[in-house]
Amino acid sequence: MAAGVVKNETHGFKGRLGYACLNTILRFQKPPVFCSRTCRIDTIKEKGLDYVKELGRLNVLDLVKLVEWNEENNIKFMRMSSDMFPFASHDDWGYSLEYADEELKAIGVLAKKYGHRLTTHPGQFNQLGSPKSDVVRRT
After folding, report:
1. Which among 6, 33, 89, 125 could bridge 138 via Cys, Cβ 3.0 to 4.6 Å?
2. What does each C-alpha distance from 89 to 18, 83, 122 come to in angstroms?
3. What is the CA 139 to chain-centroid distance, rounded?
């Protein structure tokens, strides 16, 4: 087992242990492992959309590391960050996730292999009940 990794002892617990978004052990190792790399619109204007897409791709690659760590520690449930693909649903800066199709399929195969449940939680701007049709469309 890697240094600094704490083995999760569940003592016969039959449910699914899990957590939301941030693994506080892997997040603070060097280099950090996390799935919420994001940026500001000014950064998109400066560095371009390919930069933002690469943040999303790196988030998915780290998700693989998180799922592997979860399996080693008997954690079978994880809520993924709603920031995995920064600004993907933005009206002006939005983009399709097709560019990360291969990486996303790989994480799905891995989660299925281990019997893990991966979920997501909508961000604060996702509102299906909004009176504004553009907000519902983006959601």
Report:
1. 89
2. 27, 11, 11
3. 17
What is the architecture of the domain spanning 18-138? Alpha-Beta Barrel (3.20)
Domains in the chain: boundaries: 18-138
Instruction: Work out the number of other CB atoms within 10 angstroms of the CB of residue 52.
Output: 23
Omega prior to 31 cis, within 30 of 0: yes
- Angle in degrees, CA 37, 23, 105, rounded to 5: 65
What is the separation of C-alpha 133 from the centre of its chain, rounded to a whole number of angstroms? 27
pLDDT tens digits, one per residue of 57-100: 999 999 999 999 999 998 999 988 888 999 998 889 999 999 99
Q: Which of 104, 125, 98, 121 is nearest to 18 (CA)?
A: 121
Burial zone of 66 (CB within 10 Å; 0-12 exposed, 13-18 middle, 19+ buried) = buried
Handedness of CA 65, 62, 111, 99 (dihedral sign): negative
